[in-house]
Specification:
Layout: E1 13-14, E2 20-21, E3 23-32, H1 37-48, E4 58-61, E5 67-76, H2 79-91, E6 95-98
Antiparallel strand pairs: 1-2, 3-5, 3-6, 4-5
Length: 99
């Protein structure tokens, strides 16, 4: 590498389980189909990932219409950040499953 080149691995950090941070990380959240579900879930994600881009949100409704699934992709900075998001999401009263 010459002095003008940047190391593509610079600033990246490996975590147990083979995850290398920072990285784009999708999170799928399933819960009750309520008007408040999507905005409340996005608020939880934004609390932990303020740079989260709404354009990454994918919304799907269950066949019967009783449930929604949101897939959000964040730029994860650490395993601790992911753990905190998962913990907050699983504690939310409208959430049934987080993957």
């Amino acid at each position: 590498m010459t002095s003008g080149e940047r190391d593509p691995g610079a600033g990246r950090q490996a975590a147990p389980g083979g995850l290398v941070f920072p990285m784009d990380f999708p999170i799928k959240i399933m819960g009750h189909n309520r008007l408040e579900f999507e905005p409340q879930i996005i608020a939880v994600v934004r609390r932990h990932a303020p740079d989260f881009d709404l354009a990454t949100v994918e919304v799907r409704q269950s066949r019967g219409g009783n449930y929604l699934s949101l897939t959000v992709t964040i730029r994860a900075q650490s395993r601790a950040q992911l753990d905190a998001i998962y913990l907050d999401l699983t504690r939310h009263p409208l959430v049934k499953v987080v993957l």
